Amino acid sequence: MKKLALGAAALALAATSAAAEVKVGMITTLSGGGAGLGIDVRDGFVLALEQAGRDDIELVIEDDQRKPDIAVQLADKMIQSERVDVMTGIIWSNLAMAVIPSAVNQGVFYLSPNAGPSQLAGQGCHENYFNVAWQNDNLHEAAGAWANQTGYENSFILAPNYPAGQDALTGYKRFYEGELAGELYTQLGQTDYAAEIAQIRASGADSVFFFLPGGMGISFLKQYADSGVETPVIGPAFSFDQGILGAVGDAALGIVNTSQWSKDLDNPTNSAFVESFQEKYDRLPSLYASQGFDTANLLISAIDAADVSDKEAFREALRAADFDSTRGDFEFGPNHHPIQDIYAREVVMEGDVLTNRIIGTALEDRADAYADACNM
Amino acid sequence: MSLILIAEQVLNGLQFGVMLFLMAAGLTLIFGVMGLINLAHGSLYMVGAFAAAAVAGATGSFLLALAAALAAAALAGVLIEILVIRRLYRAAHLDQVLATFALILIFSEGTRWVFGSFPLFLDVPDALSGPITLPGGIQYPVYRLTLIGIGLAVALGLWWLTARTRIGIQIRAGENDREMIAALGVDISRLYTIVFALGAALAGLAGALVGAIQSVQVGMGEPVLILAFVVIVIGGIGSIKGAFIGALLVGLTDTLGGIFLPELFKLFMPADAASQTGSALASMAIYILMSLVLIWRPSGLFGARA
């Protein structure tokens, strides 16, 4: 098993580093399929720590291989033998559900840089759990809202048949007001979408909404472009992030997707982030990288305001979210999930690189559908 | 549900089936001739796809990319046959499974080291992109039709190779009685290497052909490997003809099941529940098919050995 112990500040101040005061455990996906997401979160997080030049934060990074059992083992080790104060890093909702409830109940703070399962936003919310990315439904809701704004009235919607896929279609339908030309659940991990595309062609839909994360989305988009079906497509940013666009190629051009972040968001923090990320890692940042970066900056702001051993004060400091986010405005709702704008982006070619450009705001100051069920 | 839609889905099922056949043919040959369970067959599929993506990215030529995929997968096959597999012919199946599973991990992480964690880009060649209108008004992608053609041509070529050539006779003899053909003076270890390289090259070809319409990424081979095992179990282990029929059956069942089962449930359920239940059942359809075939013929459709 890979073990990367990175005293991030030690990189900058190797000789004079003082004893670390806050220990942060990051469990994320660094190998196998889907490793690109974890690597982006890690790189964004490490970049923020380096820029702050802190020698009082010790970061321990472990690879969960996208397996819930391994994530649970690593979390136990971090909490019980390494005695971390704060945990972060998990990408996938099923791993989050396996790790987070028990971690926060043992008094550890958890800052989620990606996964936002509905259970943890509603009844299962916890005072020590903060989500810095989004509630899982958010980007799908924004897609539904954008479909209304565009004037789509007959959508064909599809997603894989697993909890996040069902949430995606529910999220889209929560805001979308038109008719449904068809509703399909595909197999998780499916790579061939010829059958689904034939049904889309036959359905007479005026728009297609899809949630197919990772390789599934790449396959779908390439096959869709090759099929000659011209119905416009809309989806969440997960199939259009910077790591995936290169593999989709021109098939993605012009497609509208929804995201809480984009490289061209106009605020000083974001411009500086995009530039420094590119300089350090020689690639464009993705939304996952921005989430890792924001998570680290939230953590730093809380450490500056309160001592981590004073749980009450530290929790208040996190709740205040007093940091400069790459998203501009950022605040937490009562269930510790973000209240933020969600944008519609369009895939464009810049030079010879595919990337996204904001074309409008799909939802303003969106919280989530589960906050009411949370009693903290 | 129109006739055009059904015809299109049958074509989709055929296309899926012939690509599965390319995977399953190598797997069944290797098992039939050498008695070896090769879990790393999916890794050879991935090697083919990555080699094709790398060469297509560097040269822009799809034909060169296909040649590179065949060469890279065959070479990888020869290497692992000589370095690892050769020591396992006499070992128990459990040892073979363990060793070839280790190969999967080595290939996956090795590929990630060389190519990084992000999926690679491989597109269909310009000449074959876009749809064509078939008789009856069916719009169908040219590339998928080409895949069906290539798959059928390979099936024909394999039949010719096993039925009409000297090496084919040796392969068939090797399946029946290893000791005897060794005693007759056939260089059995060379034969094994050739069969392994042939199987690997077919997997690499499938990886490159399918990679152009799917995602070229680490771990892409394992889902296909599982289906390929289902195919050879249905077709009968060791039989190329069985692999061909099995692959078409699996391809058609999977594709048509995915369409018709949700439609069937819609007759007596609300639409979104029908879609969920139907697609859940559709993902089981090929395994149900496999159980039925095994109940009817325990050694598979064309299996020689029980």
Explained architecture:
The complex is a heterodimer of chains A (376) and B (306). Chain A is 40% helix and 22% strand. Chain A is an alpha/beta fold and 376 residues long. In chain A, strands 7, 8, 9, 10, 11, 12, 13 and 14 form an eight-stranded mixed sheet that branches. In chain A, helix 9 links the parallel strand 9 and strand 10. The longest helix of chain A has 19 residues. Chain A is globular. Chain B has a two-stranded antiparallel ribbon. Chain B is globular, with a radius of gyration of 20 Å.
What's the Cα radius of gyration of chain A? 20 Å
CATH fold name of chain B, please? ABC transporter involved in vitamin B12 uptake, BtuC
Distance between the termini of chain B: 42 Å
CATH hierarchy class name of the largest domain in chain A: Alpha Beta
Q: Can you identify the CATH superfamily of the largest domain in chain A?
A: Response regulator
Number of strands of chain A: 14
Categorize the overall geometry of chain A. Answer: globular
Strand order of the largest sheet of chain B: 1-2
Task: Report the uncertain regions of chain B.
Answer: none
- Beta-strand share of residues of chain A: 15-25%
Total number of helical segments of chain A? 13
- CATH architecture name of the largest domain in chain A: 3-Layer(aba) Sandwich
Oligomer status: heterodimer
Query: Tell me, what is the CATH class of chain B?
Result: Mainly Alpha
From the alpha carbons, calculate the radius of gyration of chain B and give it in angstroms: 20 Å
- Decide which structural class fits the backbone of chain B: mainly alpha
Share of helix of chain B, binned? over 70%
**CATH overall fold name of the largest domain in chain A:** Rossmann fold
Mean pLDDT reading of chain B: 90
Main β sheet profile of chain A: 8 strands, mixed
What structural class do helix, strand and pairing data of chain A support? alpha/beta
